[in-house]
Amino acid sequence: AAVYSIAAPQNVTVVESTRVLYPAVSRRSEGHLLCRVVAAGVNPVDAKCVIADKLPARCVSLARRGVEGCVVGFDFSGVVVEAAGTSTYKVGDEVYGCMPPFKGTYCEYVRAPVSQVSNKPSSISHEEAAALPIPIVTTIQAYRAHGCTEAGKRILILGASGGVGTIATQVAKAYGCEVTAVCSARNADFVTSLGADHVIRYDDSQEDAVKVLRDGASNEAGRFDMVFDTVSSHEGRDNDRLYMQRLTAKPSVLRESAKHAYVTIGGPTSYWVRSITKRFLGVNLFSSAHDHHWIRFPGCASDLKEAARLVDTKSVRPHVAEVVPFTSEGVQHAFAQMHSRRQRGKVVVKVADA
Predict the structure, then answer these.
(1) How many CA atoms does the CB half-sphere of 246 hold within 13 Å?
(2) What is the three-state SS of 53-107?
(3) Burial of 150 from C-beta contacts in 10 A (0-12 / 13-18 / 19+)
(4) ∠ CA(107), CA(135), CA(324), 5° rounding?
(5) DSSP letters spanning 226-258
(6) CA angle, corner 31, sides to 113 and 69, nearest 5?
């Protein structure tokens, strides 16, 4: 299993488990499937030790110590090796899905909640399927929450060449939306190939893209029903003021009818505190323009089923930038790629042969 380790490069290493994983996860349960993992998707949240991207910088070291020894990963694709008698799944079924936080997927076997898995899309490989769960579930949930699953909506996607952005672009087009995508000049042709209607490119700075978008906001026709910001985070290099504050200042790039429609998926601790308050107390403390989407894992099987439909009807295709071996060096390289953010699409760990 790949586990978090402060002493290792990139804070991760692959170890021989000191416990017998298979019997530990094979306890028969009506609500779980024992699956052999073939591939595991690598997400930024993995490389940031699950919670380090949600806490102030002074707490990052403490966060890393808190996950010491935990198995890494959320996303996987694999094969059912044990299912409860009442389950709709059977031994040998190919499935994909998400594990709950701190349970991990960079390992040989997982005991996955049935509510968080679905049949793997039949038209793609395990490596491609493992690249899907968090990006596509995040996208589907965010679009549904903001009424952008119907034709004719105008969506602006920031960071359209990244792991979430590549999927978000394709899903929006599958739903019949008009997509404007922002990416670097070197990725412009790639993003166009994903189906974006309009691509706004930038070179070394995003200033040019911001100016084009601000100019277009001078009339209602140039505004959007939703902005999906897959770039902004708690890191200084992603200073959200560059995008959110400038794009929502009057005249906003959002249509007048679009409330809480500038949607982020990363950001400072304050965003996560507001998200927790909204989810558990039902109180929305975000500004009238802003919302922060926090993925819901429980019950996401229906979203994964919808994702499989989109893939098998050729509306969406995951883009795997690189497949790395299930070794310490391989996983450390994957994390380095996450931190560099220079890859197009997703990095995947090949755990075993299908």
Answers:
(1) 16
(2) HHCCHHHHHHHHHHCCCCECCCEEEEEEEEECCCCCCCCCCEEEEECCCCCCCCC
(3) exposed
(4) 40
(5) EEEE-S--SSGGG-GGGTHHHHHSSSPSB-TT-
(6) 40
Cα–Cα distance for residue pair 63/51, rounded to 1 Å:
6
Contact between residue 116 and residue 305 where contact means Cβ atoms under 8 Å apart: no
The three-state secondary structure class of 287 is: coil
Helix, strand, or coil (residue 274): helix
| Helix, strand or coil, per DSSP, at residue 47 | helix
- Give me the numbers of helices (H) and strands (E) for the chain, helices first please: 12, 15
Q: Which residues contact 232 (CB under 8 A, 6 or more apart)?
A: 158, 238, 239, 240, 243, 244, 264, 266, 267
Q: In this structure, are residues 346 and 163 in contact, taking their beta carbons and an 8 Å threshold?
A: yes
CA distance 56 to 138: 24
pTM greater than the 0.85 cutoff: yes
Longest dimension (CA), the chain: 63
Q: Report yes or no: 81 and 37 within 8 Å, Cβ to Cβ.
A: no
Q: What is the pLDDT along the chain (354 residues), one digit of tens a residue?
A: 999 999 999 999 999 864 445 444 445 567 999 999 999 999 999 998 888 778 777 777 887 888 999 999 999 999 999 998 778 999 999 999 999 999 999 999 999 999 999 999 999 999 999 999 999 999 999 999 999 999 999 999 999 999 999 999 999 999 999 999 999 999 999 999 999 999 999 987 788 899 999 999 988 889 999 999 999 887 766 655 578 989 999 999 999 999 999 999 998 899 999 999 999 999 999 999 999 999 999 999 999 999 999 999 999 999 999 999 999 999 999 999 998 877 889 999 999 998
| Residue 75 amino acid letter | D
**Cα–Cα dist 310/301, whole Å:** 14
- For helices 301-312 and 133-145, the axis angle rounded to 10 degrees is 100
> Tokens for 295?
């993925």
Angle at 193 between CA 267 and CA 265, to 5 degrees: 10
